[in-house]
Amino acid sequence: MVHVKIDQKEIEVPEGTTILEAARMAGIDIPTLCFLKDINEIGDCRICITKVDGRRGFATSCITKVEDGMVIHTNSPDVIEGRKMILDLILSNHNRECLTCTRNGNCELQNLAHKYNVTEISYQGERSPEKIDDLSPAIVRDSSKCILCRRCIGACKNVQKIGAIDTLQRGFSSKIGTVGEHSLKDVNCTYCGQCIEACPVGALKEKESSDIVWEKLQDEDTYVIVQTAPAVRVALGEEFGLPIGTNVAGKMVNALKRLGFNRVFDTNTGADFTIMEEGTELIHRLQEQDHLPMITSCCPGWVRYIEGNYPDLLPHLSTCKSPHQMFGALLKTYYAEKNKIDPKDIFVVSVMPCIAKKYERQREEMKENGIDDVDAVITTRELARMIKQANIEFVELEEEGFDDPMGEASGAGAIFGVTGGVMEAALRSVSELVTGKELEKIEFEEVRGKNGIKEATIQIGDQNLKVAVAHGLGNAQTIMNQIQEGKSDYQFVEIMACPGGCVMGGGQPIKTAKIQSTIDVRAKRTESMYTIDEKSVIRKSHENPVLKRIYQEYLGEPGGEKAHHLLHTHYSAKEKYQI
């Protein structure tokens, strides 16, 4: 332990602690821009400068380690003036059209400019060339708003181990770009959106889809159905000032009905169908010892990753569509027939925590008779913007339930939103379907938790099932290398592209670096998802009465010919670079 004094406050901290960390332990705020704990600790932006007695110049607090007896000043006049000069320099090369920026009101640079009263730009000179890349189906990149903090690179390269973007050139010519400066659609980007979540400004954002949704809502000849993913309901409230992780399902349904959707359904129902199909597929593969381990296919970012990086292992991937694609297929077949609606007149909107779903819904494999399963995907953020545009006082709304007959879902479907949730939901149903006996304890806590890779051996009848759960593509890489090298004895594997699973998806509300460093956002959202499961009347997918009725009336047996035709698909090798 070492003793330091920060702004007249004496504290004791472990040796090796940075000035920034020590200040936070003392309850003292030091501003940051480029810093993301364990992701991007490079000291580039210098906004976190402090003054240390006995040293010349300023100390960059995010990378400078404390020493015993160190006296630190975080808010002296010269420090404040230095920060203002740094902000001035950043803003001099920044697109300052803040009112029309998607991050207006939630921009870390804007917040700092306001905090330090930077109202004029002293440094006027040459500006970096502007470039907008909007060719990707999911991500828009605007170089005019980039501040070269490199947080996006940290998320893409250090966490996801993708490296789709990096720093190009040097000095004033430095910029964030891709190999050959091609569009993100033509390089190895998986559309996970973690770069968007990391960006402190508006240089990266999702490709907007709300305009087409507004258009269809105003078209009297179009029957517009919306479905909402499990993770959306525990994050949407944050956009309206509610505590992180608040479950706002009832208010969300009310808001969607007020927006004018003809029907509001729950993607959790689609998740229950996924479990029935995926569970049946797993049982067959175990019986036939065919391409084990079987790997989940719910996450489109993960699917894009395996298609480009491990095409030889594609036979291990489940053939199931993701829950919202399954549900879309059922809405345009079963639901359309039951309600005598022409599928061409149905427009299905999916509200997702994920921007890769925007890419997924456009895949050629996700059509039936030339008709898309899902017509538009909007993120949690886009839905929040739509609610605000409609002048709906979200916090004041009464709670309402999802519409019948497709609105009933299980708690197992809800936990799809967290890492390990698909695995746990599948184990609940597979265990009972194989043994014919009711589980004494339905929580499979072995596959829960924060670890990037979780392993467990689950006894199902007289068989031990070796399973693994990985979240974050860097961890997926570890699992896939083991399988490729023949070092894996897993039989069932769940992989999600986003660290933490869908609750931390690339389309969720963006939290500043300061919030991320002080609040465990993932834990709060995850806890809320498990609470939804615990309070559910039905907690196993195979017990969902809606699911039972649709199989009986329309699909036949799980894994049968009709179910396979509608609810399954195929995946194929893709070139990582289309250049």
Word description of this protein:
- With 579 residues, the chain is of the alpha/beta class.
- It folds into 3 domains: 2-75, Ubiquitin-like (UB roll) (Roll), CATH 3.10.20.740; 91-206, Alpha-Beta Plaits (2-Layer Sandwich); 211-567, 3-Layer(aba) Sandwich (Rossmann fold).
- 34% of the residues lie in helices and 15% in strands.
- It contains 19 helices and 20 strands.
- The strands form 6 sheets. It has a 5-stranded mixed beta sheet with strand order 2-1-5-3-4, with helices on both faces.
- The model has no long low-confidence stretch (mean pLDDT 95).
Q: Could you describe the largest sheet, including whether it forms a barrel?
A: 5 strands, mixed
Count of folded domains: 3
Distance between the termini: 54 Å
Tally the beta strands.
20
Q: How much helical structure, as a percent, in the residues?
A: 25-40%
Structural class: alpha/beta
Extract low-pLDDT stretches: none
CATH uppermost class of the largest domain: Alpha Beta
CATH topology of the largest domain: Rossmann fold
**How is the largest sheet built, in terms of strand order?**
2-1-5-3-4
Apparent shape: globular
- Enumerate how many helices there are, as a single number: 19
> How big a fraction of the residues is strand?
5-15%
